Amino acid sequence: MMNEKMVAALNQQINEEYYSSYIYLAMAAYLDDSDLDGMGHWMRMQAQEEYLHAMKIFDFMVERGARIKLSAVAEPPFEWETPLAAFEAALDHERYMTDNINKLVDLAISERDHATNNIMQWYVSEQVEEEANVEGIVKKMKMMGDSGQGLFLMDRELASRPVPTIVADGQ
After folding, report:
1. Are 113 and 2 in contact (CB under 8 A)?
2. pLDDT confidence of 165, banded at 50, 70, 90?
3. Where do the domains of the chain lie?
């Protein structure tokens, strides 16, 4: 059984993961509206991945007998100045999420909740990957500057992102 402090923190993280999904959908809409369908596709796939992250915590809590309490998801921003600004915002958001995960790990350790610490280690690794992926896109976009050809090629590259999956054992 999980203690109330851990349950509250994980419920908050579920909300944060849903917000992540929501902000990436907002970014997808902005990019689609800018005729950057490949970038929009990348953001939609990111939104799906964040939803899966929320459900992984949801399912973990159910398995542990914890009560899930969903709360309202905040409204995300509506637009960004440039596609690069959208991806920079995505990178900032991933860094924020990494900080949240690290705090959950710290809490699990302090509460001696080994099961939660164990699942949070998957999220720690996932956040390393998330930050690296978005940072790589940002770096490439900065290298190409205002090049329309570069933006076209980046849009085409990001269109190939596959649909995300998370299997039961977290791999």
Report:
1. yes
2. confident
3. 4-158
The secondary structure element, H or E, covering residue 153 is helix 148-158
User: Which numeric CATH code is attached to 4-158?
Assistant: 1.20.1260.10
Query: What does DSSP assign to residue 33?
Result: H
Nearest to 97 by CA among 8, 13, 25, 9: 13
Neighbours of 155 (CB within 10 A): 20
Whole-model pTM: value is: 0.93
Q: DSSP assignment of 36-82, as one string?
A: -HHHHHHHHHHHHHHHHHHHHHHHHHHHTTPPP---PPPPPP---SS
- The count of other CB atoms within 10 Å of the CB of residue 35 is 9
Structure-block tokens of residue 114: 């080994």
